[in-house]
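Researcher: Structure prediction, please.
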Amino acid sequence: MKNPFKRNAPEKEFVIAGKKGGLGTFGGVFTPSILTILGVIMYLRFGWVVGNVGLIGTLLIVTISTSITFLTALSIASIATDQRVRIGGAYYMISRSLGIESGGAIGIPLYLAQALSVALYTVGFAESVVGVFPGFDIKIVGLITTIAVAGLALVSAKAAIRAQYFIMFGIALSLLSLLFGSPIEQSSIEMWGASQENSAGFWVVLAVFFPAVTGIMAGVNMSGDLENPSKSIPKGTFAAIGVGYIIYMGLPIILANRADALTLIDDPLIMRKISYWGDAILIGVWGATLSSAVGSILGAPRVLQALARDGVLPRWLRWLGRGDGEDDSPRVGTVLTLGVALAAVWLGDLNMIAPILTMFFLTTYGVLNITAGIERLLNSPSFRPKFKVHWAFSLLGAAGCIAVMFLINTVATIIAFVFVVLIFLWLEQREMKAAWGDVRNGIWMAITRAGLMRIGVEEESKTWRPHPLVLSGAPTKRWHLIELASSLTHNRGILTVATVLTSSDIAAKRRKNMENNIREFLNKRSIQALVRVTTAPDAFEGGERLIQSYGLGALVPNTVILGDSENEEYRSKYCGMISGFHNQQRNVMVVHQNEDQGYGDRKRIDIWWGGLKGNGGLMMILAYLLQSSRNWYDAEVHLKMVVENEMAGKEAQKNIERIVEKIRTGAEPEIIVSNGRPFNDILHESSKDADLVLMGMAEPDENFSEYYAGLQQRLKGLPTTIMVLAAEEISFGEVLMQQDNFQED
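Model: Predicted structure follows.
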């Protein structure tokens, strides 16, 4: 089936181009950003801030808040000058760096936050209008305003931006009126704010003020409509932050000189009283709310359009990715956003959800910082931004965002985090595949490199893990080998599934395709494994070569799992291969499968044991690993030992019980007295009801082929049996008992 996320054009270009005839820096980024920054909090809450913490405290709060926003802007500039930022703004940046799941986990809440922000701002506008004209109905004014704002956005983005120029003029007029105003009474400058019993704490005030500086995403969300995103996003964003900082640092000086602390705290419209023309403040308030609503109604549908085009939304919502007109305007998405906003205006108490909306915005800022920090920290050759930022600044910005989120509202922060995590898990479960690469492989590469460089060459018993390599041939024909190896390594070791092809004319591309097919086959069956396909003139020689060369540094397969071969024609080569594995210090597990029984009910494992040394210790470990796996969970392990007479049996019983108690594997010791009976008879009688039998093999010598032939005769009629040959230099007895400093007698 064709991948719906594939693209013909490359996602990333070094020469970054934008939309011909699109918006410029001033109209596309600076204007929506500065108008969102200079918002309702400036008009209705800034006096309260100064009254509570005074001039010095306010200047400090403004500086801290703007610093976090500035650090985020640095990260945005770094990402924007490294890749072509298309429709979707912050979502696009995150998804192309951290992956489609992470981008979607941020993009969906970001869309909802922006859509509900339209309602939040239009209701705020309606409340201020009703305050001046009490005869109006708040809901009706809110609904009419929401429709008008959406209608403006439907005409075109450029028309909405032009409308924002008039709003900017109104805000500028209100600030000039405030500048040339006068005090309402004679009062000393408020340096430190009201007394402690009449004021809120510093961090409470910071939490109230901080949303005032979080408007930088309004310009980023217009990325798809910009003529040159890589140039306009950094310049416009930095300019908006700088202008906003100057205004926010100047206003406290005016407020602190024109009213006392209690007046500033008690009167939300104190600016109207101390301005030259008080009604200009109302114009500013209305302009601030409407401009923020326009910014949200422009940004939200574009995020939705990008989500739909990338296949993040369910298939039945893909129509939301449609664009209309020459500017590819998301009119369908705008209509849907209008519906969401109207429903919120009519039904909701937006004051309850406002803190969660702020959390979604701050989460986006934090993840953008993390994205830029990781990209820079990994030092990937593909990350070549024109605007370079040290990773420490980006991660500091992320830490600042998270800290402010908890300061503003801990409950809302937790709700936002849970919502984002649930979306991420939902998208990950869908196993989405995108045509673009992301930074996650780079992260794993860095972690893997650091781990490999620290792994010692010498094995230690305390850290031993099984790293099996299965010589499976075609996986479908020897699935029982892969299933067994997966049970041994689940969340513990590294499994490799390998195939040796005896044809010498197989091209590298065909081998690569075969590896991909096997990998896909394993993934569908939830088997986590590496895959290796190699060629050799002879399968047995190829197996030895593979084991000798395969691996990375100290991380190599330590155990080879292969199926039994009863073909007498190849027995000599087969045994030679086992001998070669042993000489390379690789443990060997030869699985003799009972075709009729398979692994039975997976309830009982028999170990024919001769002590902890060599094969005995390894068999104990293998049984324990199987017993703790999902397929063999809680199976009974019977530890069987044959002795010649009753006297030897009593001594052996005492020793084996002591060992089992020390190693704590849950095995049940069973001493069998032979009384002259042949071992073969005892083996078949005692293990006939087992589901799996583990037996040791002798070390290969010049007579190993004859020994192996006799071993195969012994296994006929038994349940599925694993013949184990330990070869590593470590003591598997120490692996089992290193915590007890116990030595076998």
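Model: DSSP finds 27 helices and ten strands in the chain.
Researcher: Thanks, that helps.
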